Structures are given as structure tokens and as C-alpha cells.
TrEMBL record:
Organism domain of life: Eukaryota
Pfam family, one: zf-RVT
InterPro entries hit by this protein: RVT-Znf
Stretches the record annotates as Disordered: 198-223
Domain Reverse transcriptase zinc-binding: 57-146
Protein name: Reverse transcriptase zinc-binding domain-containing protein
Compositionally biased region (Polar residues): 204-223
Length: 223
């Protein structure tokens, strides 16, 4: 993973396979952190846990740090949704997805509504329990729709299966400034228009047909 040059350590990462796009982002973040650390060959190094005043690691301080980082990242995603150039209904729908307030079958069960094993299955694939994350991100039909959206936009990537991670991953793709204002809208409209409407259909063809009827708006990406 590295070597010494003139008494200083130089990192040299090597991997057994090419990294996915989201892994490249994590690697860049790691390298930024490592750039702040200078290892010396003739000097003893030690670990210090910055989240604790005494520098000692503890589960309590680690948990607190993760909670703070997660909440900050979560709040920033909610801000992205509400600032998106999209209809208010779509923004409200995306917000409800992130906070898990969609009346899916699993959420109905949590509210005390009794459903049989068959009744709780996803309305699209009929294979898995219908939770928010499954219905909008993990279902094989939903996944196929999202792959078609990304192919239409010229991207290829492995998609995430929960709302916050999926949106974070979605935002990574955009580098052109002119697209940043409409890219969150594509995520929201994908949720609100394509997938929600296809919930009443039972096959992939219907889901794809729903998407096909919306693709003429691709002029938004080139204007």
C-alpha cells in the first residue's frame, strides 16, 4: 500500500478490481485525510482518537461522532430536495421517501394493520415485503427503471438500495454546472412520476412504458 522515500512514507493504493464510482469518491476522501498525516521513518507513530479529549478511543465517542456526521449529511440531502427545481408535490413526495413516511405495506403493518404474508408483498415484483426502500430502490422492476433512466442520461453504475444513499450517489454524477439545478429534479420525478405510477402495474413492460412516455423531456439535459 506504500513505500518509503527519503525517510517519508508515500501511499500507493492497489486494488484487485476496478473501483465503482461511489468507491472512487470514498478513496478521494481517504486520500484527503491521509494528506494531513506525515509519517516519518525514524519517528515512533501512535494512534490518537480526536473525538475524545484524552485521545483514547471509546465506543461512546465513536457512536456520537457517527450520529453527528449522519445527521449533517441527512439534513443536507433534505435541503437538496426542498431546493430542487421541481414541482412542490414531487419535492414533498421525495421528502416523505427519505423520512420513510410512504404508506407502504410494511409501514401499514407497523401502524397495526393486519396483512397476510401474500398481502405484504411488493406490488411490483411480488417477491419481497413492500418497504419504502424496497419499493423505490431495491425492487428488480424499480431497479430496471432506474437503470433505464441512467442509460438515457449516459451514465452507468451500480445503484444503492436506500433513499439517502441513493440520492447521495445520484448527486455524484453531476459535474456540469448547468445540470446541477435540474439533476435533483430527475431523481424526484423518477420517484414521483415513473415509479409511483407504475405501482399499479404488475410487470416490467408497464413500468418501462411509463418511463418511455416521459423521455421526450430529455431536452432539459441539453438546453
Amino acid at each position: 500500500m506504500g513505500y518509503w522515500i527519503n525517510g517519508e512514507w508515500v501511499w500507493n493504493h492497489s486494488w484487485r478490481r476496478p473501483l465503482f464510482d461511489w468507491e472512487m469518491v470514498v478513496l478521494i476522501e481517504l486520500n484527503c485525510l491521509l494528506d494531513n498525516v506525515a509519517l516519518k521513518q525514524d519517528i515512533a507513530n501512535r494512534w490518537t482518537w480526536k473525538a475524545s479529549p484524552d485521545g483514547a478511543y471509546s465506543v461512546k465517542t465513536a457512536y456520537k461522532t457517527i450520529q453527528i456526521q449522519h445527521q449533517e449529511g441527512y439534513n443536507s440531502l433534505l435541503k437538496v430536495i426542498w431546493m430542487a427545481n421541481a414541482p412542490l408535490k414531487s419535492k414533498a413526495f421525495g421528502w416523505r421517501i427519505l423520512i420513510n413516511k410512504i404508506p407502504t405495506k410494511m409501514n401499514m403493518i407497523r401502524r397495526g394493520i393486519e396483512l397476510s404474508t401474500d398481502q405484504r408483498l411488493c406490488a411490483l415484483c411480488k417477491e419481497q415485503d413492500e418497504s419504502t426502500n424496497h419499493l423505490f430502490f431495491a425492487c428488480k422492476i424499480t431497479y430496471a427503471v432506474w437503470q433505464k433512466i441512467y442509460n438515457w442520461c449516459g451514465f452507468s453504475s451500480v445503484l444503492q438500495n436506500d433513499g439517502a444513499t441513493h440520492l447521495s450517489h445520484h448527486l455524484i454524477f453531476i459535474k456540469e454546472k448547468k445540470l446541477k439545478s435540474i439533476w435533483p429534479m430527475i431523481w424526484l420525478m423518477g420517484r414521483r412520476q415513473h415509479l409511483h405510477k407504475s405501482k399499479d402495474n404488475d410487470d416490467n413492460a408497464q413500468a418501462n412504458a411509463t418511463l418511455d412516455r416521459t423521455t421526450p423531456s430529455s431536452s432539459l439535459l441539453t438546453s
